[in-house]
Design goal:
307 residues, hpI Integrase, Chain A, 3 strands
Length: 307
C-alpha cells in the first residue's frame, strides 16, 4: 500500500481513504512518485483540518469544510496558485471516492475558484539556445551534459523522461525516440540532426568511458555508472548555463518550453506539438498560442509599414 506523508495528526478514517486514492494513482494511473507525494502532502493538510473541525467520518464532510480549508490556506499566506493546486487534489480525491461509492456526492462540486491569470513560462531566445549548445565540452562529463541538453531542447522531454531514457529507446537510424510519459503512455519523438550527431558521439566515445567496463540499460549515466538523477541533471544544466553566460534561471523545464515555443513561432501545428510534448489535453498545449500571438504581433510591428 502507498504510504502517505502525514502533515500532522490527521483523522484515521481520512488516512485510510487517502491511502486507497494514492494506491489508485500509482497502480492504475501510473503517476510519478513525486506527483503522488505532492497529492499526499496536500490531502494530509486537509485531513488535519477535518480533525480540527471534529468530523467523525467521510459522510460528514461538506462543501463548507472545503471552503473553510481554503480560507485557512489564504490566511496562512499561500498563493492563489498553491490553493488551486490543493483544491484540484481534493476534487480528484473526492471524484475517486464517489466512483468507488464511498461517498454519495463530491463536496467540492459546487465550489469554483477564481480563474488564475495565465502565466507564460520562461523560455529561451534562439540566440541563448545557440550560446548554450555551441560551447566546446572540456571532457567526458561535459560531453554527456552537452548531449543531454541538446536532446532536451531537440525533443521537449520532461526531465524525468530524459533521465529515464534507455539505450533501446533510441533509434538513431530513423532519428527518433520512444518515450514512456505520464500514465505509462508511449509516444515517438523525432530527433533533429544536431541532437543525432551529439548522441552518436556520446554513445561511441563517451559512454563506454563512463561505464568503465560495466553495463547499464540507461542512456545517460553518472560517474558511478548508474542512471543520472533529476537533481544531477539540473545541477549540470545550471553549471553549463553559467559557463555559457546565459542569463536568468534555466531549468530542464525551460528547455521544454523553449522547444515548444520555437516550434510554434516557426509555424508548427499545435496538435503536432501536443503529441511531441505528450500532453493528454490540447488545452495544456494552447498556452503556446499566446506565445505565437505575441511573436506575430512583434513581427507585424517591426515589418508592417503602418504598424
Amino acid at each position: 500500500m502507498t504510504q502517505r506523508r502525514t502533515a500532522g495528526a490527521a483523522a484515521a478514517w481520512w488516512d485510510a481513504l487517502v491511502d486507497r486514492f494514492l494506491d489508485y494513482l500509482a497502480a492504475e494511473r501510473g503517476l510519478a512518485a513525486n506527483t503522488i507525494r505532492a497529492y499526499s502532502h496536500d490531502l494530509a493538510l486537509f485531513g488535519d483540518h477535518l480533525e480540527r473541525r471534529g468530523l467523525g467520518g467521510i459522510a460528514d464532510v461538506q462543501g463548507s469544510d472545503v471552503v473553510s480549508f481554503l480560507e485557512v490556506l489564504q490566511r496562512r499566506g499561500l498563493s492563489a496558485r498553491s490553493r488551486a493546486r490543493m483544491f484540484a487534489a481534493l476534487r480528484s480525491c473526492f471524484n475517486f471516492l464517489v466512483g468507488e461509492e464511498m461517498v454519495p456526492a463530491n463536496p467540492t462540486g459546487d465550489i469554483h475558484l477564481p480563474r488564475l491569470p495565465q502565466q507564460l513560462p520562461r523560455s529561451l531566445a534562439p540566440s541563448e539556445v545557440q550560446q548554450l549548445l555551441t560551447r566546446a565540452p572540456a571532457g567526458a562529463f561535459e560531453e554527456r551534459d552537452a548531449a543531454m541538453i541538446e536532446l532536451a531542447y531537440a525533443t521537449g522531454l520532461r526531465v524525468t523522461e530524459l533521465v529515464s531514457l534507455k539505450v533501446n529507446q533510441v533509434n538513431l537510424e530513423a532519428s527518433y525516440l520512444t518515450v514512456v510519459g505520464k500514465g505509462g503512455k508511449e509516444r515517438a519523438v523525432p530527433i533533429g540532426q544536431f541532437a543525432h550527431d551529439r548522441l552518436v558521439r556520446y554513445l561511441r566515445d563517451v559512454r563506454p568511458l563512463l561505464l568503465r567496463g560495466g553495463a547499464s540499460p540507461y542512456l545517460f549515466i553518472n560517474r558511478a555508472g548508474r542512471r543520472l538523477s533529476r537533481q544531477g541533471f539540473w545541477q549540470r544544466l545550471r553549471r553549463a548555463t553559467l559557463q555559457a553566460s546565459v542569463g536568468g534561471r534555466v531549468s530542464p523545464h525551460t528547455l521544454r518550453h523553449a522547444f515548444a515555443t520555437h516550434l510554434v513561432e516557426g509555424g508548427a501545428d499545435l496538435r503536432a506539438v501536443q503529441m511531441m510534448l505528450g500532453h493528454a489535453d490540447i488545452g495544456t498545449t494552447q498556452i503556446y498560442t499566446h506565445v505565437a500571438r505575441d511573436h506575430l504581433r512583434g513581427v507585424h510591428r517591426k515589418f508592417h509599414p503602418r504598424a
